[in-house]
Amino acid sequence: MLSFEKIREIIEDYSEILIVTHKKPDGDAIASSVAWYYRLSEFSVNKKISLYINSREIPFEYKFLTDKVKIVQDDYMPSSDYIILALDTASKDRLVLPQIDIEKVDIINIDHHISNENFGRWNHVIGNSSSASEVTAKLFLEHKKFSRNEAEALYLGILTDTGQFSYSLTSSETLKMASILVEAGADPVFISENAYFTKSLAYWKLLAQAITEATKIDNVLIFCITSEMLIKHDMKISDLEQLSSYTIRNRETELGIVLVGMNNDETTKCSFRSKGRFDVNEFARRWDGGGHKSASGAYIKRPLFEVKNEIISAVKEICCDKMHNNRQ
Questions:
Q1: Based on the domain organization, do 238 and 101 belong to the same domain?
Q2: H or E element: which one contains 109?
Q3: Is 250 exposed, middle or buried, given 0-12, 13-18 or 19+ CB atoms closer than 10 A?
Q4: Are the CB atoms for 284 and 319 separated by under 8 Å?
Q5: CA angle 11-15-16, nearest 5°?
Q6: Geometric angle at alpha carbon 67, from 63 and 71, rounded to 5°
Q7: Which domain holds residue 210?
Q8: Does 191 share its domain with 320?
Q9: 218 and 137 in a common domain
Q10: Number of domains making up the chain
């Protein structure tokens, strides 16, 4: 594991730090990246700090964070002597980068996924932590107190990755850290309003269609979002943040699955959610995905309905038996 002081020592050998995160970034990925941008910009005054997030993939509800920082564009070329700070990303192939050769770059990998492949030259992975934002917050406190901007970002990351402090990795330490962040200036009401009360009417119409057309197999609920549905409701994939949580917000479902068609349904984005009785990280590994016991995902380069049929078969073969056994 790394300390904050060790990270400072490492980056001293580089003229630029490029902060990156994973494809289709969620609240935790964006929040932890923005927080590191603030912290490094403050104390690394003699270094260039660059933040790259694909601006087309930032969900609307998190733009109140990203609109306050400078994000480099897709064609950005870093200096010849730089290091990557990778956040909330379990494997190197999940990173989203400008046009660079990642195999030739040193990486500091900071994450909380139990499926993390320790792909960095230096790795700080706390697999039992609620979020990359909580991991980041603990590192920051080794250095100094939070600025208001850091506190706002990190509170958002923890809030969204714990499902509003309801998921299984929400610990007493998580709640204590949230309290410290509020004391440092994070406004829970303002952050919650942005994160959860800014959805468009089109989002709710798409969700209504997904629920109406959902597939239910015993205690498993599957939403299938086609490219046609996205076009019909004038939605982008980045607008679907938090959709998967609705699959398990009922007393009849133990495992929720959302399948989203990409590239005219030729590629499938899978999100798996569990109330904790079924290990969806293990389930996602069948398709080279991963994450946590209660929340995981995968990208499958095959057509949406082919993937749906395969997942339904897997659910019938494995999931229902396991969950019935866990309840006994």
A1: no
A2: strand 107-111
A3: exposed
A4: no
A5: 80
A6: 105
A7: 201-327
A8: no
A9: no
A10: 2
